[in-house]
Design goal:
Largest sheet: 9 strands, mixed
Order of helices and strands: HHHHHEEHEHEHEHEHEHEHEHHHHEEH
Shape: elongated
Number of helices: 17
Oligomer: single chain
CATH architecture of the largest domain: 3-Layer(aba) Sandwich
CATH topology of the largest domain: Rossmann fold
Helix content: 40-55%
Strand order of the largest sheet: 1-2-6-5-4-3-7-8-9
Number of domains: 3
Number of strands: 11
Length: 388
């Protein structure tokens, strides 16, 4: 599934995932300028003194070399294979080329666990991210978006964290759909521990993806840097509940920089968990409330959300003159046809003709003292006069 890169290149890149931190643009620049094999040789060779690579101090190069000395890519690749995962590199058929938009911050490679094809899945994917300590409303909206997107044939991408991430994954899985979890640790490492069952289900039904080699652990900075991969991998990012200081907003900002669609689900203005989303919506974010509105934005031509309108009432089907005549009737009691014509701004003959039409349709009835609304229509007309 990974064919396209020679064994030496794959081995060097696997080793460099032990040496260079995700998103390290110094490392990305060296990788671009030297190539993976040459960079790996420089970092692991004790014969290179001084500063063999531009843009970093001797101390920093020393740190890279310490990591390089401890790296064992053969062991990592064997451990990955044993765990049912693989290492995908730029140049492989499975590599999602949209990640190249990250420039020197592009992943060195991706460790992938799951049987599906990463590049194909990523072509039609949407990120759903948000607060870990979300409200019941946030969890409901994330799950609804996850299931709705899955039902429309979209792959749901998130970070497998508590809160919104987990709800989005579960929504997609419950709909029998596809989901990708981008991890800030090795794909054989369960984090958070409370999501062991969920992560196991994603590995079976979806894909686990990470930049870090087998057994590596998450850190705060790795969580933040992981978000750029989520943003680049997908066509758009939906934020469901986020405070002003939120990693989910970092994903949205990355998506904006990359020219991806950025969307937000509104919440109560009194909720701190919606404050970050609302700030996003005050900028370039697009307000969405369900999966149909998301797919209208990120999907192909013709993937439109259904038109939104209130309920269609029988009176909405009346022609304008008949509607004016109906409005002219008093809310209580009866009125003569001439009085109704005056209120409706029409002739007495036309008003009378329309009154008989309205009678046939069940809107009005004739009494000895004149015309009046049918009793079960009275409240509807009164409400229309006072509310709309």
């Amino acid at each position: 599934m990974t064919g396209g890169v020679c064994d030496e290149e794959r081995l060097a890149r696997a080793a460099l995932t032990r040496v260079v931190e995700p998103g390290d643009e110094h490392g990305g620049r060296w990788l671009r300028e030297c190539g993976a094999v040459e960079l790996w040789q420089r970092l692991r060779s004790p014969g290179h003194d001084g500063v063999p690579l531009p843009g970093a101090s001797a101390r920093r190069i020393g740190g890279y070399r310490l990591r390089a000395a401890a790296a064992d890519p053969d062991r990592d690749l064997a451990a990955a294979e044993e765990a049912g995962s693989r290492f995908v590199c730029p140049g492989d058929q499975e590599w999602p080329s949209q990640l190249d938009d990250l420039g020197d911050a592009r992943p060195i490679g991706l460790w992938v666990r799951g049987g599906s094809h990463l590049r194909i899945w990523a072509l039609r994917s949407v990120a759903v991210v948000g607060a870990r300590a979300c409200t019941a409303y946030g969890a409901h909206m994330a799950a609804s978006l996850g299931s709705g997107l899955a039902e429309r044939g979209w792959v749901v991408v998130s970070g497998a964290a508590f809160g919104v991430d987990g709800a989005a994954h579960r929504g997609a899985l419950a709909a029998g759909g596809a989901t990708i979890a981008v991890l800030a640790c090795g794909v054989d490492t369960v984090y958070p521990r409370g999501h062991a069952e969920l992560i196991g289900r994603i590995a079976e039904q979806g894909l686990l993806v990470g930049e870090l080699p087998p057994g590596d652990h998450p850190t705060q900075s790795r969580f933040i840097l992981r978000n750029r991969v989520i943003a680049a991998l997908t066509r758009g990012t939906v934020v469901v509940e986020a405070e002003y200081r939120s990693g989910s907003l970092a994903t949205a900002r990355s998506a904006q920089k990359l020219g991806r669609f950025v969307m937000g689900v509104p919440g109560p203005v009194t909720s701190g968990l919606s404050s970050g989303v609302h700030e996003l919506l005050r900028g370039e974010g697009v307000l969405v409330t369900d999966a149909a509105e998301v797919t209208e934005l990120v999907g192909d031509m013709g993937e439109l959300a259904p038109p939104r309108a209130g309920p269609l009432l029988p009176r909405d089907l009346l022609d304008p003159v008949a509607a004016r005549v109906l409005e002219a009737l008093p809310g209580r009691g009866a009125a003569g046809s001439r009085e109704i014509a005056r209120e409706a701004g029409t002739t007495a003959d036309e008003a009378l003709a329309r009154l008989y039409e309205l009678h046939s349709l069940g809107f009005v009835e004739r009494r000895s003292e004149g015309w009046q609304l049918v009793s079960d229509r009275t409240q509807t007309v009164d409400a229309r006069r006072g509310g709309a």
